[in-house]
Amino acid sequence: MLQYFDGYGYHGTSFEQTYRCYPASFIEKPQLESGDKIIMPPSALDRLASLHIDYPMLFELRNDAAERVSHCGVLEFIAEEGMIYMPYWMMENMLLQEGDITSQIQKLS
């Protein structure tokens, strides 16, 4: 597994981190359930900005244990550090439970 924002996940111009995932019902963002976007921590925005990434940002989420992959965008950067919030349908599709760890990679063009 990759590490949190302590430098071990750094790969030049790519972004790869692990987070604990929680459903959108944990925060007051009901619009999150009907889309394909997630909420990430502010440190992710800081890191992405320093990498001079392309917009729009597209992320690949992986659950390696279940061999599941999904793709998404980001709605906001307001999650607690080490966490992401995602639509429940996305968690179900990826076979993730509350608090499970997912690795996340930003796809660069």
UniProtKB/TrEMBL annotation:
Keywords: Ubl conjugation pathway. The keyword ATP-binding does not apply. The keyword Membrane does not apply. It comes from Rubus argutus. Residues 15-103 form the Ubiquitin fusion degradation protein UFD1 N-terminal subdomain domain. GO terms for biological process: ERAD pathway; ubiquitin-dependent protein catabolic process. This is Ubiquitin fusion degradation protein UFD1 N-terminal subdomain 1 domain-containing protein. Belongs to the UFD1 family. One of its GO terms (cellular component) is VCP-NPL4-UFD1 AAA ATPase complex.
